[in-house]
Design the sequence.
């Protein structure tokens, strides 16, 4: 007689999930979920501490919800640029990219792929083609009129894209459901700040929004002390500040 080997207690669950390697997709609601793929640090330790995996995830869709468009996205995007080893793709950004500013931030604009698309159909088509190609380090697309069915298709395509895939939508879209596993609401603050509220993540809800300081290093070197974050307010009666330009003479 041969004894029947005992089945592993999780064998049935493993078979349902497609193997033990899929356990990373399961998490307790009271804890941050694990991200089995690579993540890219955001550049702010306080934000990385509340993001599943500790940064912007690859192989998935992330939503940035902000109004007006372009008010806070560039500040949050800047620290990601130097970490990319492949081109960055921008689809229909609300402002013209500023190559000199990005070069000062430590990233070469030669690695930029800028797609100008005006209609919602063109924006969606360009984003889908970039995800299918999987040839960029990150994709950032402004899709203010994207529908839920289109987002589900983007989420499927993003699962095969190695780098972060960021879809920027109006802040009012936070009230609608979305297949994106990670959603953040951004709000620009005075003193070069950004308020970040995690609308959706793999884990418990964030009880308090984060306040990040996004003052560029190049600007911090020349900004007067009275205009830096945390500076004391102007005395009563001083309703304006005069900033005199610095003129440098360069011999040719």
Sequence:
């Amino acid at each position: 007689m041969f004894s029947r080997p005992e089945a592993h207690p999780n064998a049935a669950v493993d078979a349902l999930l497609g193997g033990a390697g899929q356990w990373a997709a399961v998490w307790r609601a009271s804890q941050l979920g694990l991200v089995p793929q690579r993540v890219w640090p955001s550049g702010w330790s306080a934000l990385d501490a509340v993001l599943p995996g500790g940064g912007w995830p690859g192989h998935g869709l992330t939503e940035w919800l902000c109004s007006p468009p372009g008010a806070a996205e560039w500040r949050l995007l800047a620290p990601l640029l130097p970490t990319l080893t492949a081109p960055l793709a921008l689809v229909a950004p609300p402002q013209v990219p500023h190559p000199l500013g990005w070069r000062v931030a430590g990233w070469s604009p030669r690695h930029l792929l800028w797609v100008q698309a005006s209609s919602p159909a063109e924006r969606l088509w360009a984003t889908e083609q970039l995800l299918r190609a999987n040839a960029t380090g990150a994709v950032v697309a402004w899709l203010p009129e994207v529908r839920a069915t289109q987002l589900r298709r983007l989420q499927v395509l993003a699962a095969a894209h190695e780098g972060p895939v960021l879809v920027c939508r109006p802040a009012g879209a936070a009230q609608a459901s979305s297949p994106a596993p990670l959603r953040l609401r951004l709000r620009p603050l005075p003193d070069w700040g950004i308020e970040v509220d995690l609308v959706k993540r793999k884990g418990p809800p964030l009880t308090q929004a984060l306040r990040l300081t996004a003052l560029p290093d190049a600007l911090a070197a020349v900004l007067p002390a009275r205009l830096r974050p945390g500076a004391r307010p102007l005395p009563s009666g001083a309703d304006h500040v005069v900033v005199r330009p610095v003129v440098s003479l360069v011999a040719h």
